[in-house]
Design goal:
105 residues; mainly alpha; 4 helices; 56% helix; 0% strand; globular; Ribbon_hlx_hlx; Alginate biosynthesis transcriptional activator; DNA binding
């Protein structure tokens, strides 16, 4: 399997000021998804941007990204086989489910 070349030294960096308590909430969610906080934030940004149609295919996460597990790569590959309408509907459903889960916790 081809391994993507990724270096935190060459990656774009952006400092974000988080409201009080958000860092801890992100850490918990990332742990639950078996991801780093950085991967969790990137996944959620991509999800919301895909939902809005703000990401082009060339910008969206690549299948060979080291940030993705094998299972996530398979899901992403299947997701890309859906029509744009189906993708938007699925992302909206997942976002709604995540909101409900956050309200319950």
């Amino acid at each position: 399997m081809k391994q993507a070349i990724y270096s935190s030294r060459t990656a774009d960096k952006f400092v974000v000021r988080l409201p009080e308590g958000m860092r801890e909430r992100i850490a918990v969610v990332a742990r639950n998804h078996h991801r780093s906080m950085n991967s969790e934030i990137i996944a959620r940004l991509e999800q919301s941007m895909l939902q809005e149609g703000a990401l082009d295919e060339g910008i969206s996460m690549r299948l060979d990204s080291p940030e993705l597990s094998l299972h996530e790569r398979e899901l992403l590959q299947r997701f890309r086989q859906l029509s744009r309408r189906q993708q938007n509907a699925l992302v909206a459903l997942i976002a709604h489910d995540a909101e409900l889960a956050a309200e319950e916790s």
